[in-house]
């Protein structure tokens, strides 16, 4: 049996040794920093700069989810959802559509590393910082880099580009869609067709523009398009959507040398993202919670666009009869709105704001009328 | 004034046009995927594989924080905290200590891309998948790669490595500390000294081992050490700690060519992480919420180690007198525990479990005794 004295004696006997041991450790090891014992300080900021933008509560909640394995079937489902979400956001049917495990800059490298080989001729449209960066990366690859420059604030014309294409005969032309450094949106119609006529691939950076300015990858003949997660998609930074056309894939997968990077080698990433029809094998551990948040950002985009901008549906407030309110509006405010139709019958109002009627004044008018109706129409106890 | 008929007629007049417009759009554009209209599905899984591991609630909460700008002072403070946390976890005083914006594989590339130039001789210890990957990357750089192989399940000896160093005269030797593919921990004592005797830098992959098996970067003479966020540090994947010794920095910053990648170019990243004494400039948008979660993972590590493993402090339960409980334990269970000391006096019990007394049975015994004391000691109304 253990007596109390024994416990005490053990403590006393060991303590000087322990103190000595800790002293010895302190002199040769690195102690933990007091800064890390302070709580995490994240002040609230309204982010109206060129990105990142604030994250909606639904995406914050996705970022707080427990992690699952990067090779679990549910993770692959989420990655498949992301692929479809990017296809929608990019307006493309390219099977080779993924999210890179890094920032928009990492996607820029992914594009150039995979499609450009040493000695390839590359034409870079420079009208701000992004073109400069693309040129820097292409030079690191050992490409023959030619610059097509415009003063910041101006956009390239088809004529500008055709001159560059005919002069240099590049295999790739890089251009920025949303030049966030100067605030210019580059028109893209006709550039794909033009490049293809010169046997050249069109690479477009849409980090700052995607979802905010219209882009149609397939229709506009863009061969490689990438963006970031932290702008219009409203997810935290850390992932970057990218898509490759058939022509880009062909150039990429028939190259003679390996790309400079294993981390963003598209032959590995295509498999990891289930794009090559083979069973997925381990490449790297994807940023799991960033995939959750990117998926939600893309889902919000999909849902938003499913809401017809011309007809707004509003749930019938609990306790009210929908017909009473519609009748009240017509009788007292001379406004027609309608009820639901088919599966939404009895559940919603449908308020149309189209063409000539689509004005701020009419929005205010119908809202005032609805407020009035809710005051005067009979309401059952809930 | 608008009459009701006007609203109706507008709606009727516009509707066929709208339907036609939507039909035209459908045939040329990509619709949103129904999969994205399903809710995000993240099942709970206990992750006892080689990583990622489950994320504690505190880190989940950090992942749900609203984002702030990547160049805000509070962000730089968090990055400074991360640097100090990594210095502690790695046991290094290297100023060039940062987290890469990518997975552990991205850190592997960061190490090799920055320290190895085309034509450099590199020796890679291969005893599983990680050595193979390192060799793949070094070959992409254009290095002269030599392999030192061991069957999976075995570790390298100093003798093995010395043979390789004297035969090939490499400028870099790569070795995996925790070989998660075979379950082997590579002993590291003496390897740094040996490499330096042969004018060779020592690069160690500790993605699967950091925090679980002891590692002392400075003491063991490791020149480049990297890990991942998702193993012992318990943060979601997406960031990777890395540190460079003075000798590694010297080789890195006196290279003749630029590293293959701009994204992980350490001359840029050193500035972004405030390691070069110059004002920080924009390089890329770091994964902001991953920095929050990594910071918390490192903070937990720092706090844990500040808790002396030999003496456990327990808060005195509200409503009890600490002295009653200590007296009760001694009188009825022959167990000594003590109260607080100095600033903790009256607030905590101190329970020592050291040397001979540090057994599972004694933990159970003191817990049973405390339960008994809480039942029988006087408790004031709270």
TrEMBL record, chains A, B:
Q: Does the keyword Transferase apply?
A: yes
Any coiled-coil regions, as ranges: none
What is the catalytic activity of this protein?
A: glyoxylate + L-alanine = glycine + pyruvate; L-serine + pyruvate = 3-hydroxypyruvate + L-alanine
What is this enzyme's EC? Answer: 2.6.1.44, 2.6.1.51
Print the keywords alphabetically: Aminotransferase, Pyridoxal phosphate, Transferase
Any GO MF annotation of the entry: alanine-glyoxylate transaminase activity
Q: Where does substrate bind?
A: 350
Question: Where in this protein does the record say N6-(pyridoxal phosphate)lysine is found?
Answer: 231
Quote the subunit structure annotation: Homodimer.
This one is known as Alanine--glyoxylate aminotransferase
Q: Per the UniProt entry, what species is this protein from, by scientific name?
A: Leptobrachium leishanense (Leishan spiny toad)
